[in-house]
Design a protein that fits this description.
2 domains; 8-stranded parallel β-sheet; 7-stranded antiparallel β-sheet; 46 strands
Length: 649
């Protein structure tokens, strides 16, 4: 009898232990006591209650094996428990997880974006840790910024009350960046920290936003490393009146991510889906400029027209006649001209092709870019001031020759080389920078972080470098006459204010009628930190002799010695693949679909729902319902909108 009583007591203790264990595990769901909610600790005293194992260190990361673990990560992150940049938290998926298991009253609960930032930056707990997906899949994810539904799981009022700050306003998450991860990287843009997100698949996810947002399936905004992440058959759901947040034109600029820190190459994205348009930041994509001008031989950038150095300028720029007033150094002057009303979308434009009569040719000569002309002695040297302005006349790097010579293939099978397209400069520009002649106005332009009415010299290629580097250009003479060109260094009356007048212009290269027929020439112009800080700008124009042709130009912003703080690589839409262990295609260089999506506008209906899926190796389908948002697909893979509202499997 005593033995039975003893066994009963042991059994009771075991049952109570199990109950206590379950209570502890689900403490975040139900608001039980006993959880350390002091955000100043940054690391929790009962980590086993939140993750499968680990202490959050690099050597022993928190491991995630169930839906509740990811739930805990999201809420703890957004409450500020992982904000210490000197003690970063590390997380690792150790199995596939199914977020549909996260239910209350038979209703699946969403989780908030992991890492949040309000658009006014007053509430900031961005994700600065390290998340290794370990090759596993997060299934049936729901992300939301709205938690008013009584059936949704969320931390107890007691937990929220112990947190300094306001995470929820009227049950709405205090953040405008939406995705599995909201804001990735330090709240101080461009900070060097060891943040990384990598190696997993998101499948059948729904990203909801009830407020103005920058959204992406993987992350809203990226300011550090993300890599090797696939997205399969997932949906965006935007509520009525949702539009882009301040400082962004789009609700999403890529689909996979909302946007990233592209300023001054802080974050490199080498395999980024390519938007059609004039190249920005490196070589000028003269072929795309040729297409933009209507794909006509010798089509000109006409008088009072300007095309920005910007990859997103794929559509023909709208223009209308206007008279505007510009704030010049001599006072307010009225410039009567045809102005470009939409010359720029928001972004770091660094230069413009400015008419009149800059022409693009597709077929002038078969050019051998492996051979360049180099004067050997003073008797046939070009008339260049070698000792001023930093100009160099030497051999181009192998990557430039390779770029010009590489054979590309269009979607329709047409082949071409990058160097096949040449831009012929206008006749010698009679620019008088000091006396208000030869100028052109671009309305609502953006250069770096500056916006306003831009005043630029006409008939030139105009560049405003934003960091030290090397401006490079290749000129080719396919004619029988000698050609010439000039490069100017310009100074504004108010450096950095691109609406003000030029107070000085120095001609740093003058090459008059000395570019010999059927020769290719390569030049470099060093741009120092002092040049950038002084606000110098540059204008390339024709010189005496026949008008020159440009085959290549790098405007110098990608050649700084400053290393990027992070990289984006191998993120893509994936498809079901029964040959793979996890059921989804693997991300690698050979099967990147290279597809992106732009969402622009404001939801004018009750909601806007967009679903994207990659149905096979080179095809992506998308469907949407609702009005107000424009959806544009771009990239090298085939895309189509499904009119039936169903997807191939």
């Amino acid at each position: 009898m005593k033995i039975n009583r003893k066994l009963s007591i042991i059994a009771l203790i075991m049952v109570l232990g199990s109950v206590l264990s379950v209570s502890s595990v689900y403490a975040w769901y139900l608001g039980f006591a006993g959880i350390n909610t002091n955000a100043s600790n940054n690391r929790l005293s009962a980590n086993a209650d939140y993750y499968h194992s680990g202490d959050g260190s690099k050597e022993n990361p928190y491991t995630i094996t169930e839906a509740r673990h990811l739930y805990n990560l999201a809420w703890l992150q957004d409450l500020g428990y992982y904000d210490d940049e000197s003690n970063l938290a590390y997380f690792r998926l150790d199995s596939d997880i199914d977020m549909s298991e996260l239910t209350k009253d038979n209703v699946q609960s969403p989780i908030p974006p992991i890492g949040i930032l309000s658009s006014d930056t007053t509430y900031a707990h961005p994700f600065i840790g390290n998340f290794d997906g370990n090759g596993y899949t997060i299934n049936n994810l729901i992300i939301s910024t709205q938690f008013s539904n009584e059936s949704y799981l969320k931390p107890s009022n007691n937990v929220l009350a112990n947190h300094s700050g306001t995470l929820l306003n009227d049950n709405s998450i205090n953040s405008n960046y939406t995705g599995l991860f909201g804001y990735v990287g330090s709240k101080v843009k461009g900070s060097q920290i060891d943040t990384a997100i990598s190696n997993f698949t998101i499948a059948n996810a729904t990203i909801n936003s009830t407020k103005n947002t920058l959204s992406g399936y993987i992350a809203g905004f990226v300011d550090n490393d993300i890599s090797n992440i696939g997205v399969y058959h997932s949906t965006f759901n935007f509520s009525q009146n949702v539009s882009s947040i301040d400082n962004y034109t789009y609700i999403s600029n890529y689909g996979l991510i909302g946007d990233y820190n592209s300023e001054n190459d802080v974050i490199k994205w080498e395999d980024k889906p390519s938007k059609t348009g004039v190249g920005y930041g490196s070589s000028t994509d003269l072929r795309q400029l040729y297409i933009n001008l209507g794909s006509e031989e010798g089509k000109a950038i006409g008088k009072n027209e300007a095309y920005p150095f910007r990859a997103e300028s794929s559509e023909k720029i709208e223009r209308s006649s206007n008279t505007i007033s510009m704030n010049l150094s001599a006072g307010t002057k009225s410039i009567e001209t045809t102005v470009t009303q939409k010359a720029s979308t928001k972004g770091n434009n660094l230069g413009y092709f400015v008419g009149s009569d800059i022409k693009i040719y597709a077929n002038k000569k078969n050019i051998d870019y492996s051979k360049f002309y180099y004067p050997q002695d003073s008797s046939n040297s070009l008339e260049l001031p070698y000792n001023s302005g930093g100009i160099k006349h030497n051999a181009p790097s192998d990557d430039i020759v390779k770029y010009l010579s590489d054979v590309q293939t269009d979607d329709d099978g047409t082949t071409y080389t990058n160097g096949k397209y040449l831009m012929r400069m206008s006749g010698k520009s009679q620019i008088d920078f000091i006396n208000e002649k030869g100028l052109y106005a671009v309305v609502n332009a953006q250069v770096g972080n500056w916006t306003g009415n831009l005043l630029v010299p006409n008939r030139v290629i105009w560049v405003a470098p934003v960091k030290a580097g090397t401006m490079k250009f290749v000129l080719f003479n396919p004619e029988s006459k000698a050609m010439g060109f000039r490069l100017y260094k310009l100074t504004r009356s108010t450096p950095g204010d691109y609406s003000t007048y030029f107070s000085a212009g120095e001609q740093i290269i003058e090459c008059n009628a000395t570019l010999l027929p059927l020769k290719a020439y390569y030049f470099e112009q060093e741009i120092s930190e002092e040049d950038v800080n002084a606000g110098y700008e540059y204008a390339l124009s024709a010189g005496d002799g026949y008008n020159p042709y440009i085959a290549y130009m790098d405007i110098g912003v990608n050649n700084s010695s400053v290393s990027p703080i992070g990289n984006i690589s191998s993120i893509d839409f994936v498809y079901k693949d029964l040959t793979q262990a996890n059921g989804y295609s693997q991300i690698n260089e050979t099967n990147l679909s290279g597809v992106g999506f732009v969402f622009e506008g404001s939801v004018s209906t009750a909601e806007f729902i967009l679903t994207i899926t990659r149905t096979y190796a080179n095809g992506v389908q998308y469907i949407y319902s609702g009005q107000g948002i424009s959806v544009k697909a771009y990239g090298k893979s085939s895309t189509n909108r499904s009119s039936e509202g169903t997807f191939l499997e």
